[in-house]
Design goal:
Layout (H helix, E strand, L loop, with lengths): L1 E5 L5 H14 L11 H9 L7 E6 L2 E10 L9 E8 L8 H15 L4 E7 L3 H9 L3 E12 L2 E11 L8
Parallel strand pairs: 4-5
Antiparallel strand pairs: 1-2, 2-3, 3-4, 5-7, 6-7
The structure holds coenzyme A (COA).
């Protein structure tokens, strides 16, 4: 059975395992060295009520996580978040990422965020496709800003703005 729910500190070991695998195997993150338990605890605790972390559980085991992290610590950015989404390798391609992304985007609307940014490395067409399917649009490209596995990489910027009737421009 599949459950999507808010993460707790007890999920951090599996969240970290999934993330460290992605650091090692993919260009999805530009981190290049594994995260320690201590670093991850700080990361987890930096997520306040407006910035959810969610996990997807399969038969009682966390197989993916997503977060809407603060985009910046400068206060005027408080309603802007950046999305992260990672599914454990053997569970990819089964529709889990799509469900988790939809769930966290919905959660961000509930917590009062105004907009969510995604930074997606070139070549990650699956991620671009998923983000488009929940309402993100491409807003730009940062050329050759990363180098991983010996290759220079562009990063696509995507954005979703919630159509919140209480927000004004
Ligand atoms: C990206 C990731 C989160 C997607 O999760 P997932 O569970 O594998 O994805 P899903 O099975 O829910 O959906 C995959 C979608 O991509 C589509 N897809 C598969 N290959 C594709 C390709 N080459 N180009 C475009 N779309 C593709 C599938 O058809 C499906 O779309 P659909 O539901 O409209 O048919 C997951 O693969 C992952 O963790 N990758 C490593 C980390 C990562 O890249 N994170 C994103 C960082 S921005």
């Amino acid at each position: 059975m599949m459950t999507i729910r808010r993460a707790t500190i007890d999920d951090l070991v599996l969240i970290t395992e999934i993330y460290n695998e992605a650091i090692h195997e993919t260009v999805a993150t530009f981190d290049t060295t594994p995260k320690t338990a201590e670093e991850q605890k700080i990361w987890f605790n930096n997520h306040g009520s407006k910035n959810p972390i969610m996990v997807v559980e399969h038969d009682g085991c966390v197989v993916g996580w997503a977060a809407l992290s603060a985009w910046s610590d400068r206060c005027a950015y408080a309603d802007t978040a950046e999305v992260s989404l990672y599914i454990q390798e053997e569970y990819r391609g089964k529709g889990i990422g799509r469900r988790l992304l939809a769930a966290i985007i919905q959660e961000g609307e509930k917590t009062g965020l105004h907009t969510v940014i995604a930074r997606i490395a070139e070549g990650n067409e699956i991620s671009v496709h998923l983000h488009e399917s929940v309402g993100f649009e491409k807003i730009g490209v940062m050329r050759e800003v990363g180098r991983k596995f010996g290759k220079l990489l562009d990063v696509y910027l995507m954005q979703k703005i919630y159509t919140n009737p209480t927000s004004s421009k």
